[in-house]
Amino acid sequence: MDPLLEKELELAARRQGVTKSQFIVDAVERALGRKNPYDLLVALKAEESQAEYKAVAKAFKGEEQPYDTDASRAAIVKKLKAKHGSRAG
Contact, 70 vs 62, CB < 8 A? Predict the structure, then answer.
């Protein structure tokens, strides 16, 4: 293998946190259509629409949810305005 290509392969594998061998296996699986990201997304969305997911979501309703960007931004702006006056935000 060309040394520059091998170094690029090594760096790409390191970025993904896998070995060179696993990186190559993943690339071959994607090329053969066994690991199509779109198919995985469609399968996940179909799985999320099942009753089991809805029951879990209902059980955690009212609990703190994953990071909400808009609400967090509003809270930070409010805090900054309180601290620095109306010029913040």
Answer: no
Question: What residue type is assigned to position 53 of the chain?
Answer: Y
Contact between residue 75 and residue 66 where contact means Cβ atoms under 8 Å apart: no
Q: Are the beta carbons of 49 and 56 closer than 8 angstroms?
A: no
Place of tokens 């805090």: 79
pLDDT of 34 reads 82
Query: How much is the pLDDT for 88?
Result: 55
Distances in whole angstroms, Cα of residue 68 to Cα of each of 43, 53, 73: 25, 20, 9
Residues 27, 13, 8, 1: what is their CA dihedral angle, to the nearest 10 degrees? -60
